[in-house]
Amino acid sequence: MIGMIRKYSSFLLPLIPAFCILLTPNLETNHMRPIQPLIVGILFFLCSSAMAQVSLSNGNFPKVGDLLRYSIPDSLPDYAEVVTNAGNAASWDFTYFNAIAQRTDSFISLNAVPFTIRFFFPTSVNLVQYIETPDSVAGFSLSGGYQLFQVSSGAYINHGFASTLSGLPVSLRNNPSDTIFTLPLVYAASGTSVSRAVLDIPGIGYIEQNRTRVWDVDAEGSLTTPFGTFPSLRVHSIVTGNDSIAFDTLTLAFDAAAQETYDWYSPDFPGPMLSVTVGGQDSLIQFISNVSYADSLRDVFQIQLSNERQSVQHAAIYPNPNQGSFRIDLPESVNLHGTIKVFSMDGKLLWQDSLSPVSDLWIQLPDLPNGIYQVIVERDDSVFQGKLLLE
To answer: Hey, how many other C-beta atoms are within 10 angstroms of the C-beta on 289?
Structure first.
């Protein structure tokens, strides 16, 4: 009976208010209307469930000492599958995710950050995420990094980023700070945050970032991944802005690429249960560009081969290095009916496309930062891989 109710809950939920009225006592006779006791119990359960709402407070988010494990799947969901399922009774099923790589997010206290770095940030910072391999800033390589947060009863705030450059501390402090969202977090909540950060590079110049974040909790429901099924709120965020870079007397200003994300949060896990990044905001075509989900420890590899795949062969890429336009040369005997994928070196799937039945493949990648990437060409019975250098 309970299983049938769950199955047809989308049909029953609109009727619950009427059932709840039927269950109320008759004020004149002080008697319940004649409904079977089992049905009465079930309807009371549905009434209370319908009124329940996922609400997240500061206690539901990461704490000092937390180690959160995330898996990167080998395939991306369809854009429509992710973004169109909204509302306050949504359901998402991503049980088909198959992990090919994992990362661990670690959280430390402000006192664990070197004094030369924490000196630039307010004492209200009560949570720091350590980043082992941070992204480069304006082409400068950084060693280690810290994302500094303040988690209070009223908001989840990003105070900025800090690292070391050639042994010197650098801080990109948000002032005003970036409010990721306000708390408590509930369905239909929304907000806007404007932040500004300036990074001084001694002897070189400075970098200025201006950002506007628009966010809303656009969905509430049940999320299922290989990790389990969890009640969740989905936070949709769009971050836009502009950057300025100054070198001596030269100043360059340009718009930053918009960042659109969907993050699922649950009272059962301190970090996002699922994070999805959307690409192509400046074009008519939008697509999922990156996915990670909370997971347990798994034995994963950069490439996982099915039993039918016999070997991993080399794929020739040229020109290499290049700026995102290149050719993959495969044996003429290969009948291409498969997929080409581009991964970052930490296992994040950044781009994929279907193959056409040709042996010479010209690839045009979306804008990706300079660096080394792994290119995987997958067929039913074989895998080809090669290293790609973007510069």
So the answer is: 20
